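Kindly inspect what follows.
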Amino acid sequence: MGVLFLSTYINKVDKKGRVSVPVAFRGALSSQDFSGIIAYKSFINPCIEACGLKRIEFLSQTIDSLDPYSEARDAFATTILGESIQLPFDGEGRVILSEELIEIAKIDDKACFVGKGATFEVWKPETFDEYATMAREIAKQNRSLLQFNHKIIQDGSDVKR
């Protein structure tokens, strides 16, 4: 399995836009060639989506597999790859959020990091709280969609329904 971002953290953002990426997230990224994160505007939420270099390379390959002359391929390449920003870690594990990224998520003095598996999001904490309440209701209404198909092999042990 690749990188896995879990949990939710709230960290302070200073006047220069510097914010500490959670230690667990930095640890998940430690094996990549680039010491930092890749950030871009979320397609569906008022937040920043972020991932490691391997994930953005995977997205690039997926985009490249589409018809090279299609509008969809061009739109994905423009919005994901063209708008992605490489944010390197400083010596203290912080990144500098650009003014554009801060405006996208309406972040002021705190940022909420939300693990979503292969990616994570950065939100204004109050906005995320509102979204999390709605997301919980949507998840409850759609819980029948989340089923184990056969068995999952994890760490050598079988997990069954």
Q: What stands out?
A: The first strand starts at residue 8 and ends at 12.
